[in-house]
Design a protein that fits this description.
mainly alpha; two-stranded antiparallel ribbon; 4% strand; globular; DUF4202
Length: 196
């Protein structure tokens, strides 16, 4: 694996240092962890199943997927669909720029930095296998770790639509892996309804 690479490890440490600045904290196995660092680690772990042969640049894009997401709060945008889409676009652009700058500081060339930025902006979804791997990974992390909390905040109709949209963005390989997630019964039923 590319983890032996000094440049890769340097970039990874720089990204994780940014994640560690997240003021939001989650309790995991009795210890407090910055929310975005935990998310980044979950993304990396899922990528090992989605694309075990992923190049180091994709591993870094995956790790940077939500880079300092908390700095652009959802509440700064209108609470409607256009507001949501604008927020997501602005987040993607900022995270892509930030990740590219981190990689450049760690010694990656311009071409690698721009490629990572394109994946984070999710350009070429369905056409670029690496962009698709990133999307599958993000969807799998959402389904395994965040769907249950999300389910507490939204009514069933909205949740069904969210699961359907999530499913639509995934590849057949992503669907296969999603079926291996051990979900609580309520979430399993929700997914069954969404896919019926």
């Amino acid at each position: 694996m590319s983890g032996d690479n000094e440049r890769f490890n340097d970039a990874l440490q720089r990204l994780d240092a940014l994640h560690e600045a997240d003021p939001r904290v989650e309790q995991v196995d009795g210890r407090a962890m910055p929310h975005e660092l935990l998310y980044a680690q979950r993304m990396s772990a899922w990528l090992e199943r989605v694309a075990p042969e992923a190049p180091e640049t994709l591993r870094l894009a995956i790790r940077a997927q939500h880079l300092q997401r908390w700095t652009i709060p959802r509440d700064d945008y209108p609470r409607d669909r256009p507001g949501y889409l604008t927020w997501r676009r602005d987040l993607g652009r900022r995270q892509a720029e930030q990740a590219a700058a981190v990689l450049q500081d760690a010694g990656y060339d311009e071409q690698d930095c721009e490629q990572v930025a394109r994946w984070i902006r999710k350009e070429g979804l369905r056409r670029d296998p690496h962009t698709q791997a990133l999307e599958d990974t993000a969807c799998l992390v959402f389904l395994e770790y965040y769907l249950s909390d999300f389910a507490k905040e939204h009514d069933e109709d909205k949740l069904i639509r969210i699961v359907q949209k999530t499913w639509k963005k995934m590849s057949p390989r992503g669907h296969e892996l999603a079926m291996t997630i051990a979900l609580p019964d309520a979430e399993k039923r929700l997914i069954e309804k969404a896919l019926a």
